[in-house]
Amino acid sequence: MTLLNLNIDDNSKLPLYYQLSEQIHEQIREGHLKPGDTLPSEREICEKYNLSRGTIRQAINLLVNKGYVSRKQGKGTIIKHPALDHDLIGDYSFGKGMIRQGLMISSTVLFAGVMVGKKRITNRLNLESKSRIIKISRIRRANDEPWIIEDSYLPENRFPGLDTYDYTSRLLVDVLADFYHTRLSRIEAFIEPTLAEENHSRLLGIGEGSPALVLDRVLYDDKNKPVVYSQAFVRGDRCRYYFKVNR
Hints:
Elements: H1 16-29, H2 42-49, H3 53-65, E1 69-72, E2 76-79, E3 84-87, H4 94-100, E4 105-116, H5 119-124, E5 132-142, E6 145-155, H6 172-180, E7 184-195, H7 198-204, E8 211-221, E9 226-235, E10 239-242
Parallel strand pairs: 3-10
Antiparallel strand pairs: 1-2, 4-5, 5-6, 6-9, 7-8, 8-9
């Protein structure tokens, strides 16, 4: 069981359950509460901070719904490994989604350079056969843990020099916007379950045969022209996908 260091303000305009939830989340984000740690029981939190059981349950429910903790029968409330909630049709960047959730991001660049595009790639980018393309291959990390292997392909004639930027901490979408005045506006995506093979398991530090997802995407600009073709291999235990439909 982990000790909590909370400062609940009865005079605040913020509801007590929200204060409690946010302060526990902050301790998770800062690493004071680590994956596998168990929170004190509802009774212990009640007694120490003079809060009602209802307030504590609301706070815990909020943390459960956001994926930060889980309840396990006979074990209590346990801190989960962080996971990326990725909007399948609205998030153009894995990195942006990680930052939005308070995760520290970085990348290991496996390859960045110009090559002759294979037909399966040039077709997705509406390019002529054997057009020159830029390939940027990265391991995407959250809180210094490898989560995603992503290969991104872009037309070289439209983005000359794109492969020369430092992508260990810089986001591709930011480079496109800041230096090439290109903003993404639409996604076509396919997603399918798979199992990690030897190369993927080695790069991501997971067991061979672990569940994973393959995400195949084409990202379009505001003129509806394909800009990026992306293939991503995603750890199944670190990402979950959702989409919103407006009627």
